[in-house]
Every structure is written in C-alpha cells, then in structure tokens.
C-alpha cells in the first residue's frame, strides 16, 4: 500500500520530468502531501510565496500528476502554508496510511484515503541521507574508479592514516550518484571513527553560511564550523564559480584542513578546468589529490541498480520487466529510479500484475509527457525577445548594453536547461559566440536565479510562455 509520502514521491517524480531542475528545486522543496481524500488533496508548502506560485503556475501540472499517480479524479488541491520539519513527525488521525479504498478500479471520489504525515527522506544529524551508503551503491564500470577512491579515502579517515587523495574531486552528470557516493564516505566515517566531526554541505549552504556569518561579524564562528572537522564534504562545488569572497573563504578553509591532514571531498558536474570564473589557485588545489569521474551506467549496471532498488522496497520484479525498464531508460540513475517509482505506484493502485506490458505503458506515458526538448532554439529566442520587447537581431548581436546582455544570457541559459544544447551549439546559435561565453552565461543566470527574486520570476514567466 502506498502511503501519502510515497504518493507524493511519485507525483514529484513525474513533475521532475517536466519542470527544469532549478524550478523544481525552488518550488517543490519542502512540500508534502498531507491528505488526499476523495476529490480533494491538501499539499503543505513552506511559505506563502511558494503557495501562490504553485496555485498560479503549477496547479494544472500537480493536479494531472496526482490524478495519474492515484488514478482518481482528484479535482481540488488546497495549498497550505506549514513547515514540516523532517525530525518532527506529528501524526494526524492516528497516522493511517493513504490507501486505495479496497477496490482497484475505485470510482471517482471513492478513494478512501486518510491524511498522514510521513517523514521526508531521513537525514541524520550530520546532514547525511540514510539511504546513501556504500551498501546501497551499485558499482559498475562507469563508477568503478570513483567508488574505489571513495572507499580508500573513507578507510584512511577511519584509520587516521595519511590521506591518499586530498582533496578527492568527483565529477559527472546529473543523477549519476555523486551525492550518494560522497555521503557514503560520510556514513562510513561516522561508523568507523568514534567522535568523528563531519560536515556535509551543498556549495550553496557553504556560501550562505559564509555570507551570513561575515555579515553578522562572526567570522570566527565560520572558522570553527569548518576548520575543526575531520571530514568536509562540499556538494556541487561548481556553484562557487564567480563568487570571489566564498572562493577566498574556501581557499583558507581548505589550506587549513589540508595542513592538518583532514580530508576534503568535493563533487561537481564538470572537471575543475571547466569551472568558469574560478581562481587559478583553487583550480590547482582541486587538482592536487585525485579527480575521479562517474559516467553513465551501462545496461548491465542499470539492471543491477534496479534489482537493488526492488529489493530495498520489497517489490519483486521479473528479470524480463527489469531488463525492459533498464533498456528503455538510459539517461541517468535518478530517472531510472523515477520510472521504477511510477511503475510501483501504478501496480499498487490498480492492483495489476507487474508485467512488461504495464511497464511499457508507463514508459510510454513518461515519454509522452511534455518534454523540454519539444521547443527549438528559434522559438526560444523569439519568446525571450517578445518577453523583453527587443529585436531578435539585438539578442544575437554584439552590443554589450546591459538591457541586451541580460536577455541574451537568459536565452543561453534556457537553451542549456530546456533544450539541453551543448555549449558550443549555444554559442553558435547566438551569433557565433565562443562556448566559454555560453558557459559563463549559464553560470551567471543560474546564480542569479538563486539570489535574485526578479530574475527567478522572469525566467519562470518565460518558461511558462514557452510551454503554453
Ligand atoms: P548526483 O548527485 O550525481 O546528481 P545522486 O547521488 O543524487 O546523483 O543520485 C540520484 C539517485 O540515484 C539517488 O537516489 C541515488 O541513490 C541513485 N543512484 C545513483 N547512482 C547509483 C548507483 N550506482 N547505485 C544505486 N543507486 C544510485
Ligand atoms: Mg548531487
């Protein structure tokens, strides 16, 4: 039986495929489903701003996904502002789980469901997700080196030996297991070195910590927090690009830890050389230890991963179905997991057998979801030029005026995000520019989306226009 947390996971899995990652993270982080009762569902969100965005912009998406997942005719969604802390698990109504009214073909409104509040992914006091251990990581050829390096490092830290690779720099595309592997080291050190001090942060958290402690004049607190650890894990370090202050802070933190033979581990979506606007001295430090990449898993590994995930969730599947799913989803492990979630939800709600035919339906549904690739660079440029009311020739042109540079960079950012164009292709499309210009634009807009409300909204509105 799926509980509301699993239903919401499946809904998010579906939404994630149609909404770009920054948007998805911005608008759906901290959300949860607290009730799904007949034709009405209640979704909790962390603040009013998110509430109004979901109501105005994503309501139809959410409704459709919820109907798909539950196969009911949920008609109304109430968005409620309420922060649900992962460590607080207040149970409402005795904590019953959501359930499909006993009949698989539940007619509209007869889905007898009761609200409950589930714990979102369990994160321990070190900020580590309990699921991300070496035990649950399936090693394939594409991740062999990174995995071995992580194990060697974990062992050295546990045994307080000299560190073989410091820092360890892991890079690879999205959804390939970088965060998982990095946190696996954390777990092993927690278990193997008593009293170990571990700090896992995303690069954004690190930046935020730095900026806010400095602003409050508490630089010492920042030092204490980051320089007294045995193991420092910073996820997605590429976002440090262009942040001079944070780069400086990281430089000194790193030097301090390194001198004291404390381990630093970094992940990134690209190798150090490809990180734009990164100080030379940092790039060279990133390369001091070992650089290990993770590539896309091959079919054999994808099969093994699915088998493991099925075992974890006690959802036995025939080899045939597993092979079918693994053959049809090649992009990355996150999407593979998403498809399995969807399939699991479907099988449970409909009480249908877990056979290839059903898997085929799911894959078809997933592939007919409005994908980001449906638009062309031309349409994109057109949409942005209309949005800012400037001419297309000016967007592609050479002028460095701010009112043109900004839209131009937004076009480049969206080509990357929505069309998945390569940087050279983007540069080409936008007036034959160099690929580094495209990379710079992408990084700049990504950062502004994080920090600048207006930019976030503009990009959001342009996206809306692209897909209507
Ligand atoms: P990244 O940080 O590279 O974007 P994540 O570490 O977040 O990717 O992985 C995405 C999802 O895929 C996670 O749920 C993770 O557990 C799972 N995953 C990725 N690689 C593997 C693997 N080799 N074995 C098992 N699960 C994996
Ligand atoms: Mg990650």
Indicate the mean pLDDT: 85
Q: Calculate Rg over CA atoms.
A: 23 Å
- Report the strand count: 8
In N-to-C order, the SSE pattern is: HHEEHEHEHEHHEHEHEHHHHHHHHHH
SS element count, helices: 19
Oligomeric organization of the protein chains: single chain
Q: Portion of residues in helices? A: 40-55%
> What is the first-to-last residue Cα distance?
36 Å
* Model regions low in confidence, pLDDT < 50 over at least 5 residues: 86-121
- The rough form would be described as globular
- Proportion of strand residues: 5-15%
List the ions, cofactors and other small molecules found in this model.
Answer: adenosine-5'-diphosphate, magnesium ion
- Quickly give the structural class: alpha/beta
For the biggest β-sheet, the strand order reads 5-6-7-4-8
Main beta sheet strand tally, sense and closure: 5 strands, parallel
Overview of the molecule:
The protein is α/β, with parallel strands linked by helices and 468 residues long. It has helices at 4-18, 21-28, 48-70, 144-158, 178-192, 203-215, 219-227, 244-259, 280-286, 299-312, 319-328, 333-350, 356-368, 377-388, 392-396, 402-419, 423-429, 435-451, 453-467, and strands at residues 32-37, 40-45, 76-81, 168-172, 198-202, 231-235, 263-268, 290-294. A five-stranded parallel β-sheet has the order 5-6-7-4-8, with helices on both faces. Strands 1-2-3 form a three-stranded mixed β-sheet. Strand 6 (231-235), helix 8 (244-259) and strand 7 form a beta-alpha-beta unit. Helix 10 (299-312) crosses helix 12. The two termini are 36 Å apart. The structure holds adenosine-5'-diphosphate (ADP) and magnesium ion. Adenosine-5'-diphosphate binds next to helix 5 and helix 12. Adenosine-5'-diphosphate binds at residues 132, 136-138, 143, 172, 174-180, 305, 333-334, 337.
